[in-house]
Amino acid sequence: MRYVFGPVPSRRLGFSLGIDMVPYKTCTFDCVYCECGKTTVHETTRRQHFESIGPVLDEIEMVLSSGRRIDYITLGGSGEPTLNVQCGELIKEVKARTDIPVAVLTNGSLMPDEKVFRELLLADLVIPSLDASLQEPFETVNRPVSGILAAEVADAISRFVRASRGQMWLEVLIVAGMNDADEHIEALADTIRHIDPLHVQVGTVERPGTEDWAEPVSEPRLAQICSTLGPRAVMIGGPSRDLAGDSTENMTERLLALITRRPCTIDDIESAVGGKRPVLLGKLEELKHAGKVNRFEHKDKTFYIGSRE
Ligand code: SF4
Q1: Torsion (CA) 108, 14, 271, 98 in degrees, nearest 10
Q2: Rounded to an integer, what distance in angstroms lies between the CA atom of residue 180 and that of residue 305?
Q3: CA–centroid distance, residue 34 to ligand 1 (Å)
Q4: Is the CB–ligand 1 distance for residue 131 below 6 Å?
Q5: pTM of the predicted model, to two decimals?
Q6: Less Cβ around it within 10 Å: N or C end of the chain?
Q7: Nearest C-alpha to atom 4 of ligand 1 is from which residue?
Q8: Which domains, from first to last, does the chain contain?
Q9: Is 303 in the pocket of ligand 1 (CB under 6 A)?
Q10: Cα separation of 58 and 6, whole Å?
Q11: Residue range 29-84, pLDDT digits in tens
């Protein structure tokens, strides 16, 4: 499968079938914590026609016909999905094939564009991220393409809540020393009050990202930030649910689909892919010898990442 991965248990969406909407690594941001790696030549705000959506729909139909549990079909992947000019069309086509709700994970940067705004209204759930409402921490953490303004993004998110009748959750990621100062959090809390989203999910750095020096805030500080951000803010952690019953072949495919998109510990892999730990470790060793997986140490933890070749 080239465009579709999962379903994997997601901390937000239950069993989520992920759809990669843009080639690696196409984004309007270059977040310091991005688990997909650095945005380089593809850092852009220009929406593009990538490949035809036919093969994406074929892959989705293949997974749907397997009868596996899927709670959401989620547009996201290794970059910003709304950069794909066929985003709205894909949502429509998926909804014509299934009643499973469609979610979009977006950094919100293109939501001020009316066309993107209307396309996102076709989805059942939109989850934009907003790590800062002041321009300075926004630029430090998210490193957007020049010209993207935090205030305009926040304003579009706020209009979207009203237009979509609330089918929007907000996601906030806090990085120690970058967007965690009291004045950053108080400004963000004001903005969130104005946006009035259904939920606010607040996390911190959990896995190796683009920058080695991007550090998490402590759990007590994260709890304090959550309480400042208001009654709808909750702390989120890693995936915790189990998927079982796949054949070894499917397990390998899903394992590779998972770790090619982000670095994972064996705990992450076990809870996302299912299967017994010794079997998974044996499979990872095999894939490492075949040059398909790399293993590395980061802050006293062992991570696995799939080769993108
Ligand atoms: S975390 Fe999301 S918004 Fe940030 S660079 Fe990665 S893909 Fe883009």
Answers
A1: -100
A2: 29
A3: 5
A4: no
A5: 0.82
A6: C
A7: 31
A8: 4-235 (3.20.20.70), 248-306 (1.10.10.10)
A9: no
A10: 15
A11: 999 999 888 887 667 889 999 888 999 999 999 999 998 889 999 998 789 999 99
